[in-house]
């Protein structure tokens, strides 16, 4: 490095393209912020700082050394001249930072105070900043600006708009944009498919995948993530195995994101042995890996395995999250371990996890299954939020199992008041009365259902269809 800087300070003579390239490589290879400042000072003492490419690269280098604020921003505003290339750099760095609103401010400053106009690389960066900051209305305004500037047909802009609407849950609007594009790249197909998968529209996602294959777009591991999520939602084990095989044949099955997706798919298809085997084969595991498996065993009622996994996870220094505790509480509920559930519920505070409604629901379910119905009622009263029908329903189901008429009557009245059209509450209350030999009261509940025109919904089941996967996932 000393030799490098000796050459730097001995540089003299007219500025030419080779000298600019030399300094450009020095900025790129600067190992830390101290050396970058030396380069910065040297550029300031020469006319090289006037070169917009060099000064723009300096802005980017400071950002890469985690000095976006104040260094990158200060360098940017002290640049003798700025073009769209330099504006895109500073807007892009802020759009990817923890301060995405600053990217929007910079864009507005460019639009209002400079003669530089955005191109089809600028607007995707601004749209990304809108997504990161949750600015829905502003994002729609920027969509209007894209139309005004005639950039809505750009693949970069259109892909960013589709991603924006998908992220904000506006799947229909995203599809309208998608269908309106005369040409689509793999990114746009992938974003749209991912949107259907994450917003639980598996049928539409499968139809889009077929279109994607017919269009000649080769699927990659990102597409496989979406397809695994869809298979899990539909419980399509056979097709999920086919995708797993595709990943294994390309040596991708043990990668973290794909491994987590494969484990999740097998868990949702209720094949815990396959899920655990994939988990054990993964080269790397994170809190998502552990939590998914714990939740799977918890919901299946395998209390021992869920608790063992939880203890191993803690021993390996993995900090549990809200999903982890939901899995443990579910396991305790299925095993009737009310005391263990209370201990785990209290433990959430030790790891900085704030209980949500679903955690309270699992705790109430555990108490109700264990027969502690009065305790469950008291627990509900102490909740910081209003109980929903799922929480009250768990207590009512416990009353049915343990033949507690008194609590059952109180809870059933609340549930019927909340959702008078749901037949299940009437049926449970009627069964509670019948089990206690209160046949007149049971008959009165049935008559009430008839008077309110509430009927019991018929049961249904699903059957896995023929293979919909193209040959691209079977090769």
From TrEMBL:
UniProt key word Manganese: no
InterPro entries associated with the record: E_motif, PPR_At4g14850-like_plant, PPR_rpt, TPR-like_helical_dom_sf
UniProt KW keywords: Repeat
Region of interest called Disordered, as start-end residue ranges on this chain: 456-475
Composition-biased stretches (Low complexity): 461-475
PPR repeats: 83-118, 185-219, 286-320, 321-355
Secretion signal, residue range per the UniProt entry: none
Protein name: Pentatricopeptide repeat-containing protein
């Amino acid at each position: 490095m000393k030799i490098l800087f000796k050459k730097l300070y001995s540089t003299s003579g007219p500025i030419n393209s080779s000298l600019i390239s030399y300094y450009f490589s020095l900025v790129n290879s600067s190992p830390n912020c101290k050396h970058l400042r030396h380069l910065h000072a040297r550029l300031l003492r020469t006319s090289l700082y006037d070169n917009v490419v060099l000064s723009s690269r300096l802005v980017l280098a400071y950002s890469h050394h985690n000095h976006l604020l104040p260094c990158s921003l200060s360098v940017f505003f002290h640049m003798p001249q700025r073009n769209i290339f330099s504006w895109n750099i500073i807007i892009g760095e802020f759009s990817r930072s923890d301060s995405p609103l600053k990217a929007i401010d910079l864009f507005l400053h460019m639009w209002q105070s400079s003669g530089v106009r955005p191109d089809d690389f600028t607007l995707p960066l601004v749209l990304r900043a809108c997504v990161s900051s949750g600015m829905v209305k502003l994002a729609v305004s920027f969509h209007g600006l894209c139309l005004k500037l005639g950039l809505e047909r750009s693949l970069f802009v259109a892909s960013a708009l589709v991603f924006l609407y998908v992220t904000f849950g506006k799947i229909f609007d995203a599809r309208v944009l998608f269908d309106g594009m005369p040409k689509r790249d793999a990114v746009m197909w992938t974003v749209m498919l991912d949107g259907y998968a994450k917003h639980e529209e598996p049928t539409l996602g499968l139809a889009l995948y077929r279109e994607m294959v017919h269009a000649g777009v080769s699927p990659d591991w990102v597409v496989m993530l979406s397809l695994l999520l869809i298979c899990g939602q539909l419980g399509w084990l056979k097709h999920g195995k086919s995708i797993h095989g595709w990943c294994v044949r390309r040596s991708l099955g043990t990668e973290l994101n794909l491994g987590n997706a494969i484990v999740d798919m097998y868990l949702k298809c209720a094949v815990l042995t396959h899920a655990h085997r994939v988990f054990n084969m993964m080269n790397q595991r994170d809190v998502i890996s552990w939590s998914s498996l714990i939740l799977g065993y918890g919901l299946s009622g395998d209390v021992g395995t869920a608790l063992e996994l939880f203890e191993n996870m803690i021993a390996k220094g993995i900090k549990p999250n809200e999903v982890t505790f939901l899995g443990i509480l579910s396991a305790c509920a299925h095993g009737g371990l009310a005391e263990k559930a209370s201990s785990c519920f209290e433990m959430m505070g030790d790891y900085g996890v704030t209980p949500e409604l679903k955690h309270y629901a699992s705790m109430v379910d555990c108490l109700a299954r264990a027969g502690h119905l009065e305790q469950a009622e008291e627990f509900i009263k102490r909740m910081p939020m209003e109980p929903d029908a799922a929480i009250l329903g768990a207590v009512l189901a416990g009353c049915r199992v343990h033949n507690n008429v008194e609590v059952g009557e109180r809870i059933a009245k609340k549930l019927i008041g909340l959702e008078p059209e749901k037949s299940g509450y009437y049926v449970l209350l009627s069964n509670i009365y019948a089990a206690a030999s209160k046949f007149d009261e049971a008959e009165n509940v049935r008559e009430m259902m008839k008077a309110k025109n509430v009927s019991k919904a018929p049961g249904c089941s699903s059957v896995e269809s023929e293979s919909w996967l193209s040959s691209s996932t079977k090769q």
